[in-house]
Amino acid sequence: MKHVLVALLRVYRAVISPLYGQVCRYHPSCSAYALEAVQEHGSIRGSWLAMRRLGRCHPWAAGGYDPVPSRTRPPRSGVAAPSPQQGA
């Protein structure tokens, strides 16, 4: 499924996207964001990230730099892993 989505996004970027020109408010463009998200996170999470991005893209959006989040999650702060008790 991931390969199908990547192929569809590449076709869109090659055929349809040039017809619109530079209209995206964000960098990278929404189609580039979607392509990178699917390649980085897989078809389900990547599609979800792309849909969220498209939902933020509207005439009143500030726009700007909006990279795809990295795959690794930072450790939660303030939560320490329990240590096993020795010789109770």
From TrEMBL:
Its main location: membrane. Keywords: Cell membrane, Membrane. The keyword tRNA-binding does not apply. InterPro entries: Membr_insert_effic_factor_YidD. It is found in: Cell membrane. It is a peripheral membrane protein. GO terms for cellular component: plasma membrane. The keyword Heme does not apply. SMART domains: Haemolytic. HAMAP family: UPF0161_YidD (MF_00386). Belongs to the UPF0161 family. Could be involved in insertion of integral membrane proteins into the membrane. This is Putative membrane protein insertion efficiency factor. It comes from Nocardioides lianchengensis.
